Amino acid sequence: MLSMGLERVGSREHPSWAVDLPPALGSLLLSLGILALSRIPLSFVLKKLGGSLGFLLLVLLIFPLAYPGKDLDLGFLALSSDGILVAILIILRAMAILVLVFPALGTSRFDVTMKALRRLRVPSPLVQIILFTYRYLFVYADQFRRMGTAWRARGFRARTNLLTLRTLGNGIGVLLVSSIERTQRIQSAMMARGFTGSFRTFEDFRTRPGDVALFCAIVAVGALAFLWRARIL
Amino acid sequence: MSQDRGKGAAIQASCLWYRYPDGRLAVEDVSFTLEEGKSLGIIGPNGAGKTTLLHVLAGLFPPESGDVLLLGKRLDPKNHSDLRRHLGIVFQETEDQLFSPTVFDDVAFGPLNFGVPLGQVRGRVEEALARVGLSGYEPRVPHHLSSGERRRAALATVLSYGPDVLVLDEPSSDLDPRGRRELVQLLRATHQARLVASHDFEFILRTCERVLLMDRGRVRADGRAAEILCDNDLLSSHGLEVPLGLKGVKPEELRKILEGEERS
């Protein structure tokens, strides 16, 4: 995201508030509009975005100080107005992308999203890796939580010392080894049910008129935004 | 399937030997026959080789020597994929059996791989889930099921493609008394030959006519379930115990009790 922001702005000598800000702001508004349509509560989105917002605020701190051309002299500090604009653009664009993740993943079941990806010709091994990761992430999280409970039951307290590091290292090592063994058992279970290397799935997607209308609307808005950005309209 | 054929051997194991990759011998010279429609329990102390034997019979571990005949056909790497549709193995650890994002996908996995026409897959899944009492569980995430529900869903994953032989490894673990009783009823109602490895002797008594006792990779006894499971001297010589509820019960009395249970 950082490189994207820099690249877009770096194509001219100086970024411009009048030229660069409206499209970035428009992108964020468009994303928020799609988020509103998806009816995902804003409070939930803000809670999940908390970590990313913290990281993006760092951009706002660094860019005005690090960007070339210190034209804003505050007496004790010189800032770059271009750096401030670039930081704002990066934050707006990043937020626009991050906000879009919620309607993309939060409006249908995870397995349905993955099947849709497969229908959109995303390579099957990649989709399967995501599916297996999602399926077993909870199993290993549970296993690690149980391990932590067992540690605490025997007096373990996490501190900044070698014993804590060794205990955590051993725990992660045990998880890794058990995950390899589990992989072999899962492979056996798959082979026992006829798996020979290629995945067969049951997908009963049906395109409804509403889906076509929504797809056309999103493409149209994107095309209009592109044409406006290219100064054709 | 097996209902359409004359009675023959569902599984015939001859002089099976299996060694782990680290060189330890796990199965030594095991031979037995399981007839179609019949049931056989495998008991033995921990590390006796029960689970390993089931993996060898399912063609998942290649034997060092010996043969497995499944419905009269010799199991070898060339015909594994053809013969596997006749055998449904349910593993001890349900998290390994249920690897898909939804119960539907897991139960549909076997039928899809064994070439069941797409139009029949949904019906097969619904029927298998109904048999194990999980109708309506299709969209559920396996990880969110209770351990008893996972156990039943794991059984549905093999019932959905209609194998001729069911191989179950510790099927009653994680089940509460009611779930265990329902599983007994379900297994008694199946027409398939079944092989059940378990430490739960009462479950074995209620689901299997015959028992193999294994210890240190070898078959140490083979006979009627009621006789072997009431033989305290035999069991204790292999580190096993007659369950408290069966102590002092004679095999003949036990058979009558079980026959009465089955009739009711």
Which features characterize this protein?
heterodimer, A: 233 residues, mainly alpha, 8 helices, 75% helix, flat, disordered N terminus, B: 264 residues, alpha/beta, 11 helices, globular
How would a crystallographer describe the biggest sheet of chain A? 2 strands, antiparallel
Q: Which percent range describes the beta-strand content of chain A?
A: under 5%
Secondary structure class of chain B reads: alpha/beta
Neighbour order of strands in the largest sheet of chain A: 1-2
- Contiguous uncertain segments of 5+ residues of chain B: 1-6
Give the topology string of chain A: H per helix, E per strand.
HHHEEHHHHH
Q: How do the helices and strands follow one another from N- to C-terminus of chain B?
A: EEEHEEHEHHHHEHEHEEHHH
Question: Biggest sheet of chain B, in brief?
Answer: 6 strands, mixed
Percentage of residues in DSSP E strands of chain B? 15-25%
3D shape of chain A: flat
Task: Report the total helices of chain A.
Answer: 8
Number of domains of chain A: 2
Distance between the termini of chain A: 27 Å
General form of chain B: globular
Overall strand count of chain A: 2
Q: How many E-type strands of chain B?
A: 10
- Overall mean pLDDT score of chain A? 84
Query: Helical proportion of chain B?
Result: 25-40%
Draw up the topology in text:
The complex is a heterodimer of chains A (233) and B (264).
Chain A: H1 2-10, H2 17-38, H3 42-66, E1 72-73, E2 78-79, H4 81-106, H5 110-119, H6 124-153, H7 162-192, H8 209-229
Antiparallel strand pairs in A: 1-2
Helix pairs in contact in A: 1-4, 2-4, 3-4, 5-6, 6-7
Chain B: E1 9-19, E2 25-35, E3 39-43, H1 50-57, E4 65-70, E5 73-74, H2 80-83, E6 87-90, H3 94-97, H4 103-113, H5 118-131, H6 147-159, E7 165-169, H7 177-189, E8 193-197, H8 201-207, E9 210-215, E10 218-224, H9 225-229, H10 232-236, H11 251-263
Parallel strand pairs in B: 3-8, 3-9, 6-7, 7-8
Antiparallel strand pairs in B: 1-2, 1-4, 4-5, 9-10
Helix pairs in contact in B: 4-5, 4-6, 5-6
